Amino acid sequence: MNGLSPTKDITSFLPSNYEAIVLSDEASIEEALDLVFRAKRKHVQQGEKRKLVQNIQTTCAGNDVGALRAMEEEGWKSLDIPLICKVYLRHCITQAQNLTKQQIYECHFNNGLEFDWQGNADKITNLLSLGFSRNEALEAIMVTGNKSLELVRFK
Description:
- The structure is a single chain.
- With about 160 residues, the chain is mainly alpha-helical.
- The chain has 2 domains: about 5-95, no CATH class; about 100-155, no CATH class.
- Helices cover about 55% and strands about 0% of the residues.
């Protein structure tokens, strides 16, 4: 990329309260797309929007955000919608405001997949002994891809 943070670039276009917007698993795919279109300040014709919704429903085999959240990586890759729409949609449905810090890090850095925190308890303890806070330690493990040498250099 051009040296810009992908997260910063994406979130700079989202509404200022985007992190407070939580889509339930029961929310419709159309509702999620509406958030994406509002974030991009883009007006989409009803027919075009219907086609996007149908493409998404076919790929994720469901009609709601829960089906999107359950979709595997291959499903996201094969999703037949414009790339920028796909990136915003994925970010929008994986955001997590009412989750623990660990779950938020999993959403932001591990595509919402569960991470083996217990298997990394020793690394977390080592970082805590170096003076890092628990949240800093958790974030360092996720940001560095769990690479031990990079953990100390993170903060």
